[in-house]
Amino acid sequence: MLSRTPILTDQRKLIKACIAGDRISQAALYDLYARKMLGTCMWYAKNKEEAEEILQDGFLRVFRYLPGFNFKSSLENWMRKIMINAALHKYRSKARLNIVQRFDWTQEYFGVDGTVLNHLEARDLLKIVQKLSPGYRMVFNLYVFEGLKHREIAKILGIAEGTSKSNLSDARLILQKLLANHNGRLKLKIDR
Questions:
Q1: CATH number of the domain that 123 lies in?
Q2: Looking at the structure, do residues 90 and 120 belong to the same domain, yes or no?
Q3: Under a CB-based contact definition with an 8 Å cutoff, are residues 141 and 73 in contact?
Q4: How many CA atoms lie within 13 A of 166 on its CB side?
Q5: I want to staple 17 with a disulfide (CB 3.0 to 4.6 A). Which of 25, 71, 142, 174 is the partner?
Q6: Considering only CA atoms, which of 95, 109, 97 is closest in space to residue 163?
Q7: 105 pLDDT more than 60
Q8: Residue 167 is part of which domain span?
């Protein structure tokens, strides 16, 4: 059986080198996680270019806050939260939104009358979610992907809890229509 200790030790060495300002180690950390983190950023962005901007800002934050990483969670999850916060910061800085952190693609969130999700590729579903307005997309992502409650979303976005609920409901209806247009009968289930 393989031991995880060498991997953890190597990761610790890489992080220590990044903290020390070693550019080669920083580039290695970026190369290890950039693709996954870009995937996270895509859910919060309207297009790939905006996702890449969020990714760059997120990695600047990763390197700034890396000395505070305590290995109590996985580095990947820690970085993902930073990327989501970078996306939230980008939306807040654009304008005050009246609307929108992890998601497993399961039918728990998308109850389907047929087998639409089985025929949709992740990139197609991503494109459909990206059609939501930025505010609806943020609430939807935080609720569905990150599992946050409406009161938490309201606090993060500086909106009323009722606004969060309303935006999720509206996003759900829009997504149902978009998905129905994509493949016949479909109902989106986002109830907890």
A1: 1.10.10.10
A2: no
A3: no
A4: 7
A5: 25
A6: 97
A7: no
A8: 116-183
Q: Could you tell me if residue 191 is inside a domain?
A: no
Q: Is residue 109 part of a domain?
A: no
pLDDT score for 183: 59
**Of 60, 94, 128, the domain-final residue:** 94
Q: Please state, in angstroms and rounded to a whole number, the distance separating the CA atoms of residues 46 and 100.
A: 13
What is the rounded distance in angstroms from the CA atom of residue 180 to the CA atom of residue 86? 32
d(CA 118, CA 103): 17
Which of 94, 129, 155 delimits the end of a domain?
A: 94
Residue 101 lies in a domain: no
Q: pLDDT tens digits, residue range 31-43?
A: 999 999 999 999 9
What's the structural domain count of the chain?
2
Nearest-angstrom CA–CA distance, 169 and 78:
29
Question: How does pLDDT run across 150-183, given as a tens digit for each residue?
Answer: 999 888 888 899 999 999 999 888 888 887 776 5
Confidence grade of residue 130 (pLDDT, cut at 50, 70, 90): confident
Asked whether the beta carbons of 130 and 45 are under 8 A apart, the reply is yes
Asked, for residue 178, whether it belongs to a domain, the answer is yes
Residue 47 CB-half CA count within 13 A? 1
User: 73: number of CA atoms within 13 Å, CB side?
Assistant: 10
- 83: how many CB neighbours lie within 10 A of its CB? 27
pLDDT reading at 148 higher than 60? yes
